[in-house]
Design brief:
The protein has 95 residues and is α+β, with helices and mostly antiparallel strands. The chain contains 4 helices and 4 strands, in the order βαββαααβ. A 4-stranded antiparallel β-sheet has the order 2-3-1-4. Strand 2 and strand 3 form a beta hairpin. Helix 1 runs antiparallel to helix 3. The termini are close together. 12% of the residues are buried.
Amino acid sequence: MKIYLTAIIKAKGECKDKVLSVLQHMVEETRQEEACELYSLHQAIDDDNLFTFYEIWKSKSGLDNHNRQPYIQAFGKLIEEKLQEPPTILITALI
């Protein structure tokens, strides 16, 4: 079963550029993963500190493997220091 994921990330204003750089690196690496069907990064038009990922994964195990990758772990280290709050993660199935 495919997994659809939306992640909402709110960077602190003074950390926006660093967060964006890490997110863009995640995009480059993740798109090479076999289980990744779509991994798109968006920035809000009215708030350039707000980023959204829209993702489609071939399977739950593929997503689980993705979350173990070093570039995802590196993002996790930014959460307390560079984000306004922990990311909101919505994992859904298409109906």
